[in-house]
User: What shape does this take?
Amino acid sequence: MKSNLALFAGLLVFVGLFAFFVAGNNNQIASFVIDTTDHALTLELDKTFFWSDWNVELTLRNNPKCQRRHILESSKEKSPTLEVYFPEPNFFIFRQSNHWYVADMKSCRFQEYRKPPPEPGRLIGTFQKEANGYEFIKKP
Assistant: This one.
């Protein structure tokens, strides 16, 4: 009887620790609709465990021409942000901490800058954490 009780207690401890480690899984999604639902930017952040870095992905949607998901630099920040700049029609520039990227919405191409761009354009908003999760906050 005592061995069954010890086995049951050990199982409870294992299940509790397993739930603790798995509970860190966190997935956040936010979108910015550019002009119609066919043209949008979607940020997805995923964290497997509470101690893990954020995996950051950005999807460019220009239906029916293209839709592509691009992997950005992973982030150690507690609440990563992504600034969105608009230098000229069909192009967006993004800043994620010290990393800069450019997107061509006509072809859904995406590339990281080696150096920060001298003039990224007008800041139009930021993907950031709010009370109910991640949102795109437009700059007034």
Notes: Residues 8-21 have pLDDT under 50 and may be disordered.
